[in-house]
Design a protein that fits this description.
By secondary structure, the protein is an all-alpha fold. It contains nine helices and no strands.
């Protein structure tokens, strides 16, 4: 009996794996994930080459990448400008980073939503993003694609490409429309933030060479405190 049970479990797991492989190869989400992984590998390889040819610049770029992922594009850009990088480097790098985030996060969220692929360590993140998307969905739905574009562009709390692509999915937009709209809004936002942050950095640098770093630290503190407060409010709502 135990052998039969184990055999049935193995067959079930094998079927699930085969179904997942077929989905990854055949679905638009699977192709998006493949493009995202490929782009991430190319970007990582580029950073590795930079590390050999230009160690100082590569360290700044790695710092920008980590800052963007953890605290958002505004902090990453201010960090880059404070280290004397120009538009020609900062704008493309931020666009690539956020494009990779969307191309990786979107298909993983969809697979998790459809119970095809559940990643335990991302489960809480998916739930938080889903709740944020549900909160803003009605506002975005009122204006359709334009609403989604503006939502991604706006620099407010819990807006941006990751939440935006989830809202597009919840609104029933197909990936071939959802992803381009989100990435277009992100690119426009990055250009806007770039000129604002460059001007801010130039202005404060005239007072002190450490002023931009101080503002960056304050911005990170505000973001971290905001995240804790947002999470606390969500937990209180769930309790009530």
């Amino acid at each position: 009996m135990e052998e039969k049970t184990e055999q049935q479990e193995n067959e079930t797991n094998s079927k699930k794996k085969n179904h997942l492989k077929e989905t990854l190869l055949a679905s638009s989400e699977g192709r998006i994930l493949l493009i995202g992984v490929t782009l991430a590998l190319i970007y990582t390889l580029w950073l590795g080459i930079k590390l050999i040819n230009s160690p100082e610049e590569s360290q700044i770029l790695i710092g920008m990448t980590a800052t963007d992922i953890m605290f958002g594009r505004a902090t990453a850009m201010l960090f880059g400008y404070s280290q004397e990088l120009g538009h020609a480097t900062i704008i493309p790098v931020c666009i690539i980073i956020e494009t990779i985030l969307v191309l990786l996060f979107y298909p993983l969220f969809v697979f998790s939503w459809r119970h095809l692929l559940v990643i335990k360590w991302l489960k809480n993140t998916f739930e938080r993003i889903h709740k944020a998307a549900e909160t803003h969905k009605v506002k975005v739905q009122r204006y359709g694609i334009i609403g989604l574009f503006v939502f991604v562009w706006l620099p407010f709390w819990m807006t941006g490409p990751v939440v935006g692509c989830v809202i597009g999915f919840l609104l029933g937009l197909k990936a071939r429309l959802n992803i381009p709209v989100v990435l277009a809004g992100t690119s426009v936002a990055i250009f806007g933030w770039a000129f604002f942050m460059r001007r801010l950095n130039d202005r404060v640098a005239s007072y002190s060479s450490y002023a931009a770093i101080i503002i960056l630290i304050l911005l990170i503190v505000i973001i971290v405190v905001g995240k804790f407060l947002h999470r606390a409010l969500q937990e209180n709502k769930n309790k009530t």
